[in-house]
């Protein structure tokens, strides 16, 4: 088996971070690194070089789109695919996020296995635990 994927989760909600971490570790066998703020996420992205970033849209101080723009300005991490997590399900809002240049958008709430499937579909990863 290849090395597990490493995913950085940036969300200000402790409960959400914990649920996502448990989901991805249990359902996909991925390594999960978590950050509670946009700035912490930027620092961790540089330190950890994850395979992907899950980024919450609504956060205090630095929101998801702002964090994403800053991420894109840092050459060492601008290539990392980033998926926004949002409670806003309107198509127009999703389109705005895609226009920012994010790799994908996943709407909350989500089921654990659905989250893994959606991430795999967006990033064109195979879920090695299923295959």
Automatic annotation (TrEMBL):
4-aspartylphosphate modification, residue list: 56
A Pfam family assignment: Response_reg
Domain Response regulatory, residue spans: 6-123
Keyword line: Phosphoprotein
Protein name: Response regulator
